[in-house]
Amino acid sequence: MSRLQVVSGKGGTGKTTVAAALALALATKGKRTLLVEVEGRQGIAQLFETEALPYEERKIAVAPGGGEVYALAIDPELALLDYLQMFYKLGGAGRALKKLGAIDFATTVAPGLRDVLLTGKACEAVRRKEKSGRFTYDYVVMDAPPTGRITRFLNVNDEVAGLAKIGPIHNQAQAVMRVLKSPETAVHLVTLLEEMPVQETADGIAELQAAKLAVGRVIVNMVRPALLDEASLELGLEQTPRAAIAKSLSAAGLGGARRGGNAERLVDPLLEQAAEYAERYALERDQRAVLGDLGLPSHELPLLAGGMDLAGLYDLATELRKQGIA
Fold first, then answer.
1. 261 Cβ partners below 8 Å, 6+ apart?
2. Tens of pLDDT along 191-237?
3. Quick check: 18 and 219 in contact, CB under 8 A?
4. Hey, which bits of 110-154 come out as E strands?
5. d(Cα 2, Cα 113) in Å, to the nearest integer?
6. What angle do the packed helices 111-127 and 168-180 form, to 10 degrees?
């Protein structure tokens, strides 16, 4: 399995939640995982119910089997200071540039440079080894920008081509691309069974593949349980007499069987809900067919009825392991 797992998806699909669950799943059986955030939203801290993450690698969870999950919220300004110190030994001069606003200016007017710094930090963690020769982290999971920006974000070599043809920045971009375009990296896309997220997923996959970036899996999030199959829906909506439905409701203790009783009054709302469910069922069936045509492994995660909390995150991690993703 690729050691750098990049997770993207349309806004609102729960990509940060999936990235966090994936990090937990990969950390099972004594593994060590680094979960990286690059958008400055502190979504990881909220999911793990901890304080805001600083610009340092910090242990935030223990996975089943004793594995550990570390997290890092990458700050592009501080990453640039690290970079300037690493290649130019600026020391205090770099901090002075930050006070003058030069660091913020550089990362704003040259977003390609910002992306090199963010991806470069993650790639450095992938390559880092301890004195024993063992990798510091078995896996690095990146909660990446949304699908509409993911290809530009990862294709840093093209993004900095206009900034530097030679020198440290160019070399850094080349080193990053060697990791991102190697078997060490896989990009997973999170979607919902809805038309717009599925279409954006299909577009994102095409862009990533055109850029020769390895697409891993499609993860369908927040899937509601199937209450009725297609045959049952057709039977209920078109073939079952209203009187029979009212009788069944009455037998279940939902009102008397007499005409105008509670059971009869429940028939119309029940049929309306069934029609809404049938419409959603057809939409989800069609979107599953679209995802199936993409030719990638697809997995589904359930919608948690009680909402997302730390316990729910562990449940999703367990589901990912059951499906063989981790």
1. 246, 250, 255
2. 999 999 999 999 999 999 999 999 999 999 999 887 777 666 665 55
3. yes
4. 139-143
5. 25
6. 60
Instruction: Decide: 159 and 152 in contact? Cβ < 8 Å.
Output: yes
Report the amino acid identity of residue 214: A
Q: How high is the pLDDT of residue 250? A: 72
Place of tokens 């990458």: 74
DSSP for residue 129: B
Could you give the C-alpha distances from 305 to 1, 245, 309, in angstroms and in order?
31, 28, 11
Distance CA 183, CA 297 (A): 17
The model's pTM is 0.84
- 213 and 186 in contact (C-beta within 8 Å)? no
